[in-house]
């Protein structure tokens, strides 16, 4: 099931790999993203990246996954800005979505405060959980104002 996305498809999506890689798959599917930068720490990448890659192989929507694996959280946080800006350097800012759903609060704040550029869409996939699993059809997108535009 695709969450309702009422805007034009995204050219690029930037997200953080968590213990729930299916959320990234759902974000890609519902936004129509053409490419996706997946930021991950080594521990999450070893466990969850293979699951995400399997989900993507089974999809009919083609999206170029660009995993960027960091040794640990401190490494990710210190390099996030440069990594995101490099990935997005030739993208139209309005067709870029920063997915605030997965990752720790510190990672999410760093993504917004250091990775967001004027025009980027800040998105969060709301959903209900039961027994640790997303309840089907409970997903909906929430769009936040970009602080870089204020």
Give an account of the 3D structure.
The mean pLDDT is 92. This protein is α/β, with parallel strands linked by helices. The chain is built from four helices and eight strands; from the N terminus they run βαβαβαβαββββ. Helix 3 packs parallel to helix 4. The protein has a six-stranded mixed beta sheet with strand order 3-2-1-4-5-8, sandwiched between helices. Strands 6-7 form a two-stranded antiparallel sheet. The chain is globular and about 35 Å long. It has one domain: Hypothetical protein VC1899 like domain (Restriction endonuclease-like) (Rossmann fold), CATH 3.40.50.10770.
Helix and strand arrangement:
Elements: E1 12-16, H1 22-31, E2 35-41, H2 42-57, E3 64-70, H3 73-88, E4 96-99, H4 105-115, E5 121-126, E6 129-130, E7 133-134, E8 140-144
Number of helices: 4
Which residues sit in consecutive blocks of at least 5 with pLDDT less than 50? none
- The N- to C-terminal Cα distance equals 34 Å
Helix percentage range = 25-40%
Strand order of the largest sheet: 3-2-1-4-5-8
Please give the domain count: 1
| Average pLDDT for all residues | 92
Which H/E pattern describes the elements?
Answer: EHEHEHEHEEEE
Helical/strand content category: alpha/beta
Stated plainly, the CATH topology is called: Rossmann fold
Percent strand equals 25-35%
The CATH first-level class comes to Alpha Beta
Shape: globular
From the 3D coordinates, which CATH architecture would you assign? 3-Layer(aba) Sandwich
What is the name of the CATH superfamily? Hypothetical protein VC1899 like domain (Restriction endonuclease-like)
For the report, how would you describe the main beta sheet?
A: 6 strands, mixed
Number of strands: 8
Determine Rg (CA atoms, Å): 14 Å
